Amino acid sequence: MSTSHPITVHWRQEGRVITHDVREGDTILRSFELQGDPLPFSCRNGCCTACAVRVLEGTIDQREALGLSKDLRAKGYGLLCVARATGPLVVETQDEDEVYELQFGRHFGRGRVRQGLPLDEE
Ligand code: FES
User: Fold this and answer.
1) pLDDT over 80 (residue 96)
2) Given the CA of residue 51, which atom of ligand 1 is nearest to it?
3) pLDDT tens digit string along 62-91?
4) pTM for the complete prediction?
5) Rounded CA separation 107/62 (Å)
């Protein structure tokens, strides 16, 4: 008999709070889909941040979250498309732009860039 963990998602865009049992080792996004709740996604490879969430309780499996910086992982953000159930977890969805902005915003929007460096870092 396989172990399952209760995973709760505060789906902010839909105004819903959903809990499903997810089998140990299964990806959370896929398991929710199979149980009738297709959460936001795009690439399914841990690269685009469309499925980004912030952890409210528990620990999220980050091994395959290539699209998130170490900094954002340390701040409790995770990617549900590649996060596998390892224990009880409560998360809330983020706006795709919110995580994108946190991760890349400081690199863009600082004016002109030459040879990959902002001008004020030359
Ligand atoms: S769907 Fe792209 S990072 Fe999860």
Assistant:
1) no
2) 4
3) 888 888 898 999 999 999 999 999 999 999
4) 0.82
5) 24
Query: Ligand 1: distance of its center to the CA of 80 in Å?
Result: 7
- CA–CA separation, 63 and 109 (whole Å): 30
Q: What residue ranges do the domains of the chain occupy? A: 4-108
Q: How far is the CA of 2 from the centre of ligand 1 (A)?
A: 26
Superfamily of domain 4-108 in CATH is Beta-grasp domain (3.10.20.30)
**H or E stretch including 89?**
strand 89-93
103, 108, 53, 110: which is closest to 83 by C-alpha? 53
Instruction: Name the token pair of 87.
Output: 């224990």
